[in-house]
Amino acid sequence: MKLDAKCPSGPIAQQWDKHRFDMKLINPANKRKFDAIVVGTGLAGASAAASLAELGYKVDVFCFSDSPRRAHSIAAQGGINAAKNYPNDGDSVMRLFYDTVKGGDFRARESNVYRLAQVSNAIIDQCVAQGVPFAREYSGLLDNRSFGGAQVSRTFYARGQTGQQLLLGAYSALMRQVGLGQVKMHARTEMLDLVVIDGRARGIVVRDLVSGEIRSYAADAVVLATGGYANIFYLSTNAKACNATAIWRAHKRGAGLANPCYTQIHPTCIPRSGDYQSKLTLMSESLRNDGRVWVPKAKVDKRSPDQIPESERDYYLERKYPSYGNLAPRDISSRAAKEVCDEGRGVGPSGFGVYLDFADSIQRLGKSVIEERYGNLFEMYERITGENPYGVPMRIYPAPHYTMGGLWVDYNLMSTIDGLHVIGEANFSDHGANRLGASALMQGLADGYFILPYTLGHYFASSKLGKLTTDHPEFKRVENEVNERQQRLTSMNGKRTPDSFHRALGAIMWEKCGMARNERGLKEALQAIPALREEFWQNLKITGSREEYNVVLEHAGRVADFLEFAETMCLDALTRTESCGGHFREESHTPDGEAQRDDENFCHATVWEHLGDGKTPMAHKESLTFDTVKLTVRSYK
Amino acid sequence: MTLMKLTLRIWRQKNARTEGQFVTYQLDNVSEHMSFLEMLDVLNEGLVAKGEEPVAFDHDCREGICGACSLMINGYPHGPLPKTTTCQLHMRHFKDGDVITVEPWRARAFPVIKDCVTDRSAFDRIMQAGGFISVRTGGTPDANALPIRKRSADLSMDAAACIGCGACVAACKNASAMLFVAAKVGQFAHLPQGQVERKERVKAMIGRMDVEGFGNCTNTYDCEGACPKQIPRRFINEMNRDFIWAALTE
Amino acid sequence: MRWLMNVLTSSIGAKALMAATGLILVLFLVGHMVGNLQLFGGPDMLNGYAEFLHSKPLVLWVVRLGMIAAVLLHILSSIRLTLLNNRARPTAYKLKRPISSTFASRNMFLTGLVVAAFVTYHLLHFTFRATHPAFATLKDAHGRFDVYSMVVQSFSDPLIAGAYIVALVLLGLHLWHAIGSTFQSLGLMSPKLQPIVSAMSLALAGLLVLGNVAMPIAVLLGLVARTQGVTLP
Q: pTM here?
């Protein structure tokens, strides 16, 4: 596996311009001769599909939901960053770039991140033109707020549902192209494998989730926009159907998988309430602006919070990180919460929770101010927990939220398989080891609207792509493999449901490969996962048949892939013996217990190559160089 | 923690071609902290363990925003709690011994796929007819080049809050999609960017809505009460005006 | 005129048609009631008013034809819409509960049917006098057709008066929803107007019911004087 990032040379600020000039173009009349498959209809997939279709390419779009508008981008609450500098507070492309590289703990590729910051402004222009109702001031101009520890206000937002509004913008553009016949939409259709012919991605094999039929689609290029894999933890803030199947199948066909151990654990989620818990709900991080985080000083203190006097409370974030206090970055506050709970000082019925207390703010600002700022969040919290946060402190706990790792891509967003492009959360590129708040939406749309439409054209123009159809024997071969796998899944007639395997896997991953890991735990996980996988392939129980709408079978296929993915993820975590970004390697810390990055040995992306089932994948390295931003230690003390 | 025993009467239908019927299930040990869907998960895990097919229902984000979850629960779309999707409805709103009737959205335009899963792609086709502003990617003016009155932007946002779940159709005695379409039309009608295509948009979307086989609005407003995002009826009124004006002048 | 047909058969156009024709009918109802309330002014007044109406056949027929057109369009469109609406939900819910809707709003077709039946009877009764052919011979002291006696004699029959009262109350329900609905269907509503329109629909529907039922009730209670010298058929 050869890793050539293909980053343009020259000063970073001119690289994208230079690259755009260097890329080959396709004459408008010839564009309709090329077709692309786009899998996934979140921000990245929908924006890419619409933009490609507008250019004249023929596009087939696939999503497993009933409508493209349901993709999980929709759930992003906070906002989207851009370097507009509308508030005149000193923001610039350079500063957004700098913040993103630093926020990612120097594990992202500079060239990609700079380009992301460069196109960020055009995204806002595009979305406004589409009719996205961003928040505005009385002047009629766009409002901005600060987010995720940034020192400038660069976040654009649409109430608490920026993700939904941006997705609806991209979805509307996509629907327009469907209406024009330029895009063919395949909803309730799940990609189950990638077809690679002569070293190029030439199509996919899918399952029609309604009829159960296995079908193939051929194209000149395949674009994966299938999101992240945080559901490997079972309990995460991801939607229930989010899965790693598309990227894992592509990985098994030759696409390098980069930094799979980089996951982000969000500090402010509602803790789980019981064993039946199906997912976790995120509460906006903005709550930490006015809430104080604390736990009792004593272990297993079962008193109700109002019975615990001030002197017996530990405001641990304020104590440990006096300058940032309750606003410490996501990774740091998540880890601190886990620490105090592991000490036995966690609150709530499960013991895995910390208080986020608004009593002081309510006293200082009045209930009405708090209500105005967080009313809808408090309402949501009460709806879920049945507790009124105006009277009782909220309980929060960290939860897996986003995965920075993903398929390796070069500057053109192409994976190690020619023609297979990967965009949005599914790729590894821009966030390094930790993603800043309000940056995921930016990256998804940057890839889809403003990067892929150029680079895919370049791929078409510079490749010799003969026409081929799904009659090609390779399609039949892959289809047969998919059918066999389906057959194996449905024929075991064992005892355990896919959900129970998924929960068991999630427990291993959360315990051993969550926000804090150590060698022993990871090695244990690397024993436990294959054992669980083995049991899965012997003792799985599936009801219903393959030739119908079958949610159990759908889930089983996704769990099967998670069970393989998990092993590579743990291997990646084991190999990376440094603490960085979203994760803490317990062996690697400073004398005062903070995360210790190891730039000497780990200033690279680890890219895994699949060598076959049952074989240990091979690690490759893409060294990361930091010419523009100097490597520094993140400190939030 | 309170545990409840519940009787569930759930619509089971093998596929679009077969007839469905209600099947009764008993569920013990339902925690008040479960969400409604988690309660169904527990039921389903039990069914699969017994070798029976689980109840199929649409769901995804379970945060009340993707609009995938549906279900007519005891005669109410998304259950009896206002402003709440099924995934955010928790069992503490039910009591021990309750009988709960669960049905799919029922409308000709939303045919049943299996059990409580329906095909809502009619909404997508309405959007394809005109639910957009025809801008291409790139070449758009600076976002602040066009100031938009805050009140207009806020109203547009009120409409844009629609999650496309179809509760309005489910609640309407005529299975009309007017609130959905009105929300989509209204989002653009309140923005200056939306003015260029305003007349074409409303005509095209209503035309498609009629073709899809939704019923007609008789101004009963059950849609407004059922809408988990509380999209107000004013958008229907405004769409009526826009449509009539467009029809008479174009 | 194909475009007009297309508009009027579209869902919103059809509603606008319902609203517009309904509005005409409501205006007529107001005029009709005001005219009829002259019952309380005695036979001279009412019979004079009837004589006056019939002295302007052109106006009368223009109004009548307009009314017939409005009624026909209103009814035909409502039948079409009801059929479409029923078809839009081929499988009924086992359990469905109202949320924001009123009884009146959910049962417009039913109340409309009753009103249509009532109007038919009303026309046969008082206009064509098919139910009581003897009415045709009623003449008052001035030799005019004696509307007053016809009405009073009819309403003296508790069965007829009762039927009128019931039908009028249902008409009231129909109007209560209809008047507000007209504003919404024609796009003339706004959140600010909403409570005013609601109150107004209730008030107008209420007035129309009260004004109209006042007549049979007054007759039943003997508050309206029987005319002298006319023999009951």
A: 0.96
